[in-house]
């Protein structure tokens, strides 16, 4: 296929481009050329600034089988891209988010779950609209322009090598250090994630099979608890790591939040539970597959240890060692006081 990738040099882009090239496809990258220029010398490079009125001019008069729109949160970018690409691409694959759903406290949203109100396209509130509302507007614009050729992918937490959010990485980093580890809630509290390579390789397959529609894209294949995740990571290490499971109510009293100080984890009634319970039957039927957790952990940690020391020391998610000790001490003090 002839593939156009809008972006392509950030987080998920390099994984998608590498897989597409390995599959024998011809890839064109369209971006500003500022992030890792020359990353794929075998791919055609077109330059453009999507914030500029004529930013998509380099795409005019060209045609591709499929376009992957990876970084877009600004609806105007979709409008401008569609103005140039409509009629010149057979399929438009847009990466949205499970943040598109309306009520994050409702468990088990499938693709028919109500979505956020779409963000305004212009006006004083357009730029400040919430992330999920912008994603919904982008989805609608793609569907309006490309109809049955529109493919909307709604990932959850994307993890693995290259992830700078550290929301998943916190756990293998912490478990690798060993010792007593603060673990949140109950073992069967929900957790969901997807390896960036499982996501991007599946997206290439969707294009190869000309599969349109809307899909939740998260894993694992079956419902997973935070206990299964943490003990699965622990199995990758032969050390003295031990979990102390602290109830959600106590964590709330200590102002320890799900998806923040305790990443990946959620619980029934939490404002994040939809992110950890999305229904994926439709994606499974469309061929979404998952590599073993141990592979994700190994590769994520190989990448983590190759990062600059300052980045390794200051993770962007999770809890500091000092704060973890404070909360554990408070928990143990309460248990001693109550015994």
Structural class: alpha/beta
How many distinct folded domains?
2
CATH topology of the largest domain: Rossmann fold
Distance between the termini: 67 Å
Radius of gyration: 21 Å
Structure described in brief:
34% of the residues lie in helices and 16% in strands. It has helices at 12-22, 75-85, 131-146, 170-177, 196-208, 226-234, 248-253, 281-285, 293-305, 309-313, 321-338, and strands at residues 2-6, 26-31, 44-47, 64-69, 89-95, 150-155, 158-159, 180-184, 194-195, 213-217, 242-246.
Descriptive account of the structure:
The relative contact order is 0.13. The protein has helices at 12-22, 75-85, 131-146, 170-177, 196-208, 226-234, 248-253, 281-285, 293-305, 309-313, 321-338; strands at residues 2-6, 26-31, 44-47, 64-69, 89-95, 150-155, 158-159, 180-184, 194-195, 213-217, 242-246. The chain has 2 domains: 2-155, Rossmann fold; 170-191 and 222-272 and 292-334, UDP-galactose 4-epimerase, domain 1 (Alpha-Beta Complex), CATH 3.90.25. Strands 3-2-1-4-5-6-10 form a 7-stranded parallel beta sheet, with helices on both faces. It is α/β, with parallel strands linked by helices. Helices cover 34% and strands 16% of the residues.
What tags apply to this protein structure?
alpha/beta; 11 helices; 339 residues; Rossmann fold; two-stranded parallel ribbon; 2 domains; 16% strand; UDP-galactose 4-epimerase, domain 1
């Amino acid at each position: 296929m002839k593939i156009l990738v809008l972006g392509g040099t950030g987080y998920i882009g390099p994984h998608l481009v590498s897989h597409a090239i390995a599959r024998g496809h011809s890839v064109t990258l369209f971006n500003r050329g500022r992030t890792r220029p020359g990353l794929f010398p075998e791919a055609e490079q077109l330059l453009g600034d999507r914030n500029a009125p004529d930013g998509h001019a380099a795409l005019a008069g060209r045609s591709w089988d499929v376009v992957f729109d990876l970084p877009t949160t600004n609806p105007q970018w979709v409008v401008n891209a569609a103005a140039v690409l409509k009629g010149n691409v057979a399929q438009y694959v847009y990466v949205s988010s499970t943040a598109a759903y309306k009520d994050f406290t409702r468990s088990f949203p499938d693709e028919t779950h109500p979505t956020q109100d779409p963000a305004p396209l212009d006006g004083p509130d357009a730029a400040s609209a919430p992330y999920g509302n912008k994603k919904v507007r982008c989805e609608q614009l793609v569907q309006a322009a490309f109809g049955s050729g529109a493919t909307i992918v709604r990932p959850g937490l994307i993890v693995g090598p290259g992830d700078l959010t550290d929301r998943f990485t916190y756990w293998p980093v912490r478990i690798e250090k060993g010792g007593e580890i603060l673990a949140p809630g109950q073992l069967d509290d929900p957790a969901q994630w997807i390896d960036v390579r499982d996501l991007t390789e599946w997206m290439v397959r969707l294009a190869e099979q000309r599969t349109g529609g809307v899909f939740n894209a998260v894993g694992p294949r079956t419902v997973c608890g935070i206990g299964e995740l943490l003990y699965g990571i622990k199995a990758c290490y032969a050390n003295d790591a031990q979990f102390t499971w602290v109830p959600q109510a106590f964590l709330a009293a200590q102002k320890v939040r799900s998806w923040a100080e305790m990443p990946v984890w959620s619980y029934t009634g939490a404002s994040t539970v939809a992110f950890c319970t999305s229904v994926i039957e439709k994606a499974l039927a469309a061929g979404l597959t998952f590599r073993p957790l141990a592979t994700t952990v190994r590769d994520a940690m190989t990448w983590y240890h190759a990062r600059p020391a300052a980045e390794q020391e200051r993770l962007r998610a999770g809890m500091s060692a000092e704060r973890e000790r404070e909360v554990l001490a408070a928990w143990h003090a309460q248990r001693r006081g109550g015994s």
